[in-house]
UniProtKB/TrEMBL annotation:
Protein name: Diaminopimelate decarboxylase
Upper taxonomic lineage: Bacteria, Bacillati, Bacillota, Bacilli, Lactobacillales
The protein's role, per its UniProt record: Specifically catalyzes the decarboxylation of meso-diaminopimelate (meso-DAP) to L-lysine.
Residue span(s) of domain Orn/DAP/Arg decarboxylase 2 N-terminal: 40-297
Keywords: Amino-acid biosynthesis, Decarboxylase, Lyase, Lysine biosynthesis, Pyridoxal phosphate
Gene from which the chain derives: lysA
Listed cofactors: pyridoxal 5'-phosphate
Residues binding pyridoxal 5'-phosphate: G249, E291, P292, G293, R294, Y391
Transmembrane segments: none
Active site: C362
HAMAP family, A to Z: LysA
Length: 437
């Protein structure tokens, strides 16, 4: 649900529709807090990315960065759309496997992959391991020597670019925990090692400069730095890098005053830059891969909460408290993320009060949104926090021993539960009693 809600997203009872389903019905059927996805919006986002590359007639691959939202049903949806997936842990890999996602379309990321995770990846023949550091090269050499099975790898490098975004979601700068630094020669050293390793098959280089990026400069600069490497390695190692993977980070609109660029603007800038460098140096254009996460699921998700208590501090602030919060969406508390909201059962009522939406967790920082213009609310009303599809449920926790919410997929007026709500029994499922002494 984008922040621009259209008339067609509201039914004649004044209720918000999600994927054609009445949000009040969703709340009644599945309870709150509930995360609801408009599935056709996810499909459209994926198809949109594909079309941009198809139109440019460039060899490409789109790999959904599944950490944005990773569940069995989501991997199955991605499988239906025939694109690749990135995973960043054994847990995500396992979820993809359980979903029947083709393992040869998986890229495995991480700055500290364990031996067990790498073994799992090799055993299930993941398409590509994005190698992050020298320790990982050693581990992979060990494991592949033992199994005598080759594995496709890409080297993740840090191009030394500061994307203009929150520092916790900035990843391309030199001082980063991720990847081989180019400037100090680490990337060069890593490539030399990989080329000498009998079972490591280098298929490309990778960088990811950050998240929620709003300008093309960082991507163009990244494309240049990567093409510099491609040219250098052709010269130094007589190696033609087949794939340049430029990661994800395409920004989406969370608030009315944000103006993100359309994906085609980013992608076209990348393609143009790489094409021009390739032409100038008379080399073939490498295949271009991207890894969008947020921009595939972010605006498709809506969090539904039931209003409970109110606190009005005259002249200071109106608080409206809902039945969820940082346990189902930690982004506002973690990096001051902003959202827009609506009262889903009062879509046609005038928005004439200003309120801040508080969660129910025992932290003052547990706020979901500040200074929202909404219709007056009573206990029982339904607040929809918009565009919560990325990094909401995937970062959910059981803080305060609150059960994690349910997730539902909505498409063409039908809903389907895809993650059950945790029960109180689930909350203590892993706990063991103290030994009697
Ligand atoms: C998180 C991540 C992405 C996706 O980032 P978004 O901002 O969600 O598009 C892509 N690639 C890598 C390596 C990542 O860590």
């Amino acid at each position: 649900m984008s922040t621009q809600i259209e008339a067609t997203d509201i039914n004649n009872q004044g209720h918000l529709l999600i994927g054609g389903v009445d949000s009040v019905t969703l709340a009644n059927d599945y309870g709150t807090p509930l995360i609801a996805y408009d599935v056709s919006e996810i499909r459209q986002q994926i198809q949109h990315f594909k079309k941009i590359f198809d139109r440019a007639k460039v060899k490409h691959q789109i790999s959904y960065a599944s950490k944005a939202f990773a569940t069995v049903a989501m991997y199955q949806l991605v499988k239906q759309e025939h694109i690749h997936c990135d995973v960043v842990s054994g847990g995500e890999m396992y979820t993809a496997l359980k979903a029947g996602f083709p393992m040869d379309k998986i890229s495995f990321h991480g700055n500290n992959k364990s031996r067990a995770e790498l073994e799992f990846a090799l055993e299930h023949k993941v398409g590509c391991i994005i190698v992050d550091n020298f320790h990982e090269i050693d581990l992979l050499q060990d494991l592949t020597r033992a199994s005598q099975q080759p594995v496709n790898i890409m080297l993740r490098v840090t191009p030394g670019i500061s994307a203009h975004t929150h520092e916790y979601v900035m990843t391309g700068q030199e001082d980063s925990k991720f990847g081989f630094d180019i400037k100090s020669g680490q990337a060069q050293e890593a490539m030399k090692k990989v080329l000498a390793a009998p079972f490591l098959n280098p298929i490309g280089i990778h960088c990811h400069i950050g998240s929620q990026i709003f300008s093309i400069d960082g991507f163009v600069l990244a494309a240049q730095k990567m093409m510099d490497l491609v040219l250098k390695w052709k010269k130094d190692f007589a190696f033609d890098v087949p794939i340049v993977n430029l990661g994800g980070g395409f920004g989406i609109q969370y608030t009315d005053d944000e103006r993100p660029l359309q994906p085609e603007v980013f992608i076209q800038a990348i393609i143009d830059e790489m094409k021009s460098i390739a032409a100038k140096n008379e080399i073939d254009l490498p295949e271009i891969w991207i890894e969008p996460g947020r921009s595939i699921v972010g605006t498709a998700g809506v969090s539904l909460y039931t209003v409970g208590s109110h606190k009005n501090i005259p002249g200071v602030r109106n608080y409206v408290a809902v039945d969820g919060g940082m346990g189902d969406n930690i982004r506002p508390a973690l990096y001051q993320a902003k959202y827009e909201s609506v009262v889903a059962n009062k879509m046609n009522e005038p928005a004439n009060v200003t309120v801040s939406i508080a969660g129910k967790y025992c932290e003052s920082g547990d706020m979901l949104a500040w200074n929202q213009k909404l219709p007056a609310t009573q206990p029982g009303d339904l607040i929809a926090l918009l565009d919560t599809g990325a990094y909401g449920y995937s970062m959910a926790s059981n803080y305060n021993r609150n059960p994690r919410p349910a997730v539902v997929f909505c498409e063409n007026g039908k809903s389907q539960l895809v993650v059950k709500r945790e029960s109180l029994a689930d909350i203590t499922a892993l706990d063991l009693s103290l030994n009697e002494s």
